[in-house]
Amino acid sequence: MTQPKAATAPRNSKPANPQRRLAKTSDRYAVDYMDHAPVWPAAIFCTGLFRPTQNGAAPTPLNLTYEAKVMGRPLRYTLRSPQPLNIVDQAVYFHLCQRIGSENYTLLPPDHPRYPAYRQALGAAGLWAESGLLVIRIKLSDLAHGIGLTRTGTNAQSVLASLNRLAAATMHRQRLDVQPQSNEPHQGQSQFLGFLCGDDDVRIVLHGESAYAAYKRTGVAWVNMREHRQLGSKPAKALHSWLSAWASPVEAKRVSLETLIPKVWGDYPASKDVLKDRRRTLRKALGEVAALSGWVCSPTANGEQVMVRKPLFIGTQISTEAKSLLVAETPTVAADTPTQAAITATQPAVTATTDQPKPSEINDDSGLVFAL
Fold this sequence. Notes:
Elements: E1 21-22, E2 29-31, E3 36-39, H1 42-45, E4 62-70, E5 73-81, H2 87-101, E6 106-108, H3 115-122, E7 125-126, E8 133-138, H4 140-146, H5 153-168, E9 170-175, E10 187-191, E11 193-197, E12 202-206, H6 208-216, E13 221-224, H7 225-230, H8 234-246, E14 253-256, H9 257-265, H10 272-290, E15 296-299, E16 305-309, E17 312-313, H11 320-325
Helix pairs in contact: 2-5, 2-6, 4-5, 8-9, 8-10, 9-10
């Protein structure tokens, strides 16, 4: 994996409460602040990786396999964990990506004296195990605040529990373009993250794919953390994450409730009673997302599908093609016809950064293809 460059001083952040502005070509609400996490899309589109869990429920081991392309190389990933990863864990992961994206990290090259300790904490071995590490130093109270919790001792312990769950998850990676008998490295493993505890903070290293994607800020899904913190229910947060990576800011896209249920909960229930309950909860979650400024989540006539469009971002220049699409404020007649695009991830939104995100090459989440 390409070595990242050393970090510069952190960029100045936008005001905490920016005024709303309107896109010049439309009267639509547009986001003009930067409070976003650049996330490796596989961590969102891999069905079942993060899911809402019930307090007191018996832990069920996690065992997921999916394929992706990283830097043009096809890989098969197997992720295992003794217990499921929940929505708080996902928010913690998002905030760590956000810290890297805003250059709040320290680069440790392989020849750094502290490098072996952090590599051991990450459990890195084999493929890409010698890559530079991006170390995030953060207080547990600040990490809790970053995901929308108050700075209390209880919440600090909650995010520490999330770090422990994420550290217990292992990622096995295998290159599919290299023969097993080849001398070229073709497989490796690491934890989802590793961390070391200091006197008053923790030092965290993410697995290489997410760290590199957040560092490069290309081929990523941009998750609006301000919106994510505003949502009250865990199903709504899970839904928002998936829609943030899938939806378009310039055209409404159709998706069915049947498709969204496993995207939120990780599976499709066999019980009719559970299915009925999830459909009811999903509709409430769609209402929560629709209440966010700029989001459109409009049910179709039969109520079994929904037309979704996410807000505009005006931090960078909107393309001519995008401007032409902004003329239509409501779904067109053609959009009411189901298309395969309804379950296919699209290009990331134009986002408020100095770097224009490049589109992820994504097929579907049963055989993911990503180009970082």
